[in-house]
Design a protein that fits this description.
There is one protein chain. The mean pLDDT is 97. The protein starts with a strand and ends with a strand. The chain is an alpha+beta fold and 166 residues long. It is built from four helices and ten strands. 22% of the residues lie in helices and 27% in strands. The strands form three sheets. Strands 4-9-5-6-7-8 form a six-stranded antiparallel beta sheet. A two-stranded antiparallel sheet has the order 1-10.
Amino acid sequence: MLYYNRQAAVDYANFWWDKYNPRFPTFEVDCTNFISQCLYAGGAPMRGFSDRAQGWWMIGNPERWSYSWSVAHSLRWYLETSKKGLIATRVYSIDELEIGDVIFYDFAGDGRIDHSTIITRIDNGIPYVNAHTMNSKNRHYAYEDSSAYTPLIEYYFFHISDTFPL
C-alpha cells in the first residue's frame, strides 16, 4: 500500500509555483501538469501507461503523457472514476478539504472544467491554493480576483485518498 504525503505535495507546490521543473514538459496551459507533478511528488503512483485516454501517467524520451496528466477536465474525470492508484472523493464542502487536496474550476458553469489548483494552506477554514498558467501562490480558493471568474463559476472539490490501492 502506498500513502499520500500531503506535506511533500505542498512542499513541491510551494517550491515550483513560479518556475518549471525541467524533468517535465511545460504547457501553454500548465495548471494540470503542475497539479499532477504535485500529486506525484506526494507519492501518487502513475498507472495505465501508453493509452493516453486511460490512467494517469507521464513518461519521457520522447515525452508522452495521459490526458488526465495535463488536461483539467480529464484529471477531474479520472479522480472521480479511478479505483486503483491515485484515487479521490468528490466532496461538497470546503470543510472536508485538507492541504494537498485539489480544487477544479468551471468558470462558465457549463460542466467543462477550465482550471485546477492544489490546496497549500488552510486559514480559519478557508483553503488557499497554488497554481500554474497564471502562476499563483497561496491564493484564496474562490478566484474572485481572476479575470476568468464569472458569477456562474462552479467549484469541484476533491479529497485525495491517504492511501493508494494498487
